[in-house]
Specification:
5'-nucleotidase,  domain 2; 2 domains; six-stranded mixed sheet; 28% helix; Purple Acid Phosphatase, chain A, domain 2; alpha/beta
Length: 552
């Protein structure tokens, strides 16, 4: 039956291609590219990775299947290299490989080397074009530029420039011609990087927005370069990318290769002008888009989100040797076991996660604060017990859980301050206007129990906050802990302004968590309903308003 189904699918595609081809020949006054006189179908493959976050090796990955959390081993850059090589062999000289940013942050190996473990690896993977993501700035402008220039491949981004002279950091675009078909790419990073990240990270870098100037650049690029198919490679997050696909800015765009929010788009999302993809994160997936042309006309496309299963795609031994060499100076320190867990630790849900419960519990245990808070951000690789035994937690795991290691700070805030701040954070996560979302995940905390409705208007989502067994009082002060965000005012805690009696501690969040694990292992973090919304339920994954997208 599977063989018959495949034959039928292929037959249907070919019939569709021939029908569209006839229509193009009879209705179009001139072809898109008059130089192309191809009689047979020409297929071009676009492979896309996104948000690898320094993950070099295979690792547990969380899937949502049949209303249950399931873990499978996925990823590994040497495994991706094998996949790339196989796909190139299937379509030689007609395959383009793209990465959408956030390569150099997210693991202990990238953090301790300040991204320097990556260039030799990336150079040997054979990418064609790469854009910087929102985390590429983490080690500062100079390091970012040096690392990315060492990739030995095209780096493009339209909206990042040297603040001192307003000169672009990298070229805005790139064109690849394959047998007369001109494929164009424009790179766009999130203009809100200085707000989303610690402000000091992007010092010296200016960002332009999604505006009329961008539209003019896109339209001119397509016309002057005679681009047949135009891609925007964007690091904006799924919500803004879907909105952009229906924005007049994208009037002459065909596809948006999206990145940033780690979403697993398995069927491209169709906007008014463009189709949107986003291929997961951590090297666990590769997006594969195949474009079919007849006589220079794009007549059909196929899209598949490919699992990087290490059992299917064995390691490329040459690249694995390079990876091992790059890891060697840091391996002994990072692979040291600092604790154990009896329950799976993960961060994939939009509201509450075991991983964040453990981190904020550790911070509250160490500081003695009433409430400890942590950013709701990137998923992080799960840590999963097996065979009935506790799973070890290494320092490498800590870097996956907490990719920035900053000092802890404490202060005092009133109940009203905390509520107003939390309402703002909820709007960032759940706004029905996609352009107003930041990431899409709620801030995490220990010491509070919050009931809310994500569908209410801004400022009216919270129905109850319980602290120390009682309803939070507007005029009462509560002690709060968070992490330092370099570049923020001293009296800001996790974007909460005007906090009193702020004190920066003499230990970092990693040190706090490591000490907590040493004294409390094996830990067993679970979902406790610290934040709960009936509409979302316990297992709440990302939603994209106005689409049928589901995370799985």
């Amino acid at each position: 039956m599977k063989t018959i189904k495949k034959i039928l699918v292929k037959s249907t595609l070919l019939i569709g291609i021939l029908m569209i081809s006839v229509a193009c020949k009879t209705e179009a006054s001139t072809p898109i590219n008059s130089k192309v006189q191809t009689k047979d179908t020409l297929s071009i493959t676009i492979l896309q990775t996104a948000d690898i976050h320094g993950q070099l090796d295979p690792h547990p990955e969380l899937f949502w299947e049949n209303d249950e959390v399931v873990f499978k081993n996925r990823g590994g850059l040497a495994n991706i290299k094998t996949l790339f090589d196989q796909e190139r062999q299937k379509n030689p000289n007609r395959t383009i490989i793209v990465d959408g940013g956030d390569l150099i942050q997210g693991s202990g190996y990238t953090a301790l080397s300040e991204g320097k473990v990556m260039p030799r690896i990336i150079k040997n993977m054979g990418y064609d074009v790469i854009i910087p993501g929102n985390w590429e700035v983490v080690y500062g402008k100079e390091i970012m530029m040096n690392v990315m220039q060492d990739y030995g491949t095209e780096v493009i981004v339209q909206n990042m420039y040297h603040e001192a002279n307003e000169e672009p950091l990298f070229p805005a675009s790139w064109v690849k011609e394959i047998e007369g078909i001109r494929i164009g790419f424009v790179g766009i990073n999130d203009p809100d990087v200085p707000v989303r990240q610690n402000p000091i990270f992007s010092e010296g870098i200016g960002f332009s927005g999604l505006d009329g100037d961008l539209k003019t650049m896109i339209d001119d690029f397509k016309m002057k370069e005679k681009v047949d198919v135009l891609f925007l490679v964007t690091h904006l997050g799924i919500f803004k990318q879907v909105e952009l696909a229906s924005n007049p800015i994208a009037e002459n765009v065909d596809y948006i290769l999206g990145n940033d929010t780690h979403e697993r788009v398995r069927e491209m999302i169709q906007g008014k002008y463009a189709k949107v993809t986003e291929p997961g994160a951590f090297g666990s997936f590769v997006g594969k888009l195949t474009l079919h042309f007849v006589d220079g006309q794009l007549v059909a496309d196929d899209y598949e989100l490919m699992d990087v299963d290490p059992e299917v795609y064995k390691v490329d031994e040459t690249l694995q040797a390079i990876i091992d060499e790059e890891k060697a100076p840091y391996k002994a320190y990072l692979e040291t076991v600092v604790g154990h867990t009896n329950t799976p630790i993960y961060r994939y849900l939009t509201v509450e996660n075991p991983m964040d419960n453990m981190i904020t519990d550790a911070a509250r245990w160490k500081t003695g604060a009433d409430i400890s808070i942590s950013n709701g951000f990137r998923f992080g690789n799960p840590i999963v017990p097996a065979d009935g035994k506790p799973a070890p937690i290494t320092r490498a795991n800590l870097w996956n859980l907490l990719p920035v290691n900053e000092p802890v700070k404490t202060g005092r805030a009133t109940g009203k301050q905390i509520k107003d701040w939390l309402e703002k954070e909820m709007h960032n996560a759940f706004s029905q206007n996609p352009t107003e979302r930041f990431g899409g995940w709620l801030v995490r905390f220990s010491g509070m129990k919050v009931s809310f409705n994500s569908q209410n208007e801004r400022g009216n989502r919270i129905s109850s906050i319980i602290v120390k067994g009682e309803e939070m009082k507007d005029d009462e002060y509560y002690t709060v802990s968070a992490c330092v965000r370099p570049g923020d005012p001293l009296d800001n805690l996790c974007r909460m302004p005007n906090v009193k009696d702020v004190k920066v501690m003499d230990y970092t969040i990693h040190e706090a968590v490591e000490e907590y694990l040493q004294k409390n292992s094996p830990v067993a973090p679970t979902l406790e309903g610290r934040a709960y919304c009936d509409y979302l339920g316990t297992y709440s994954f990302s939603t994209v308003p106005g689409t049928a997208y589901k995370f799985n």
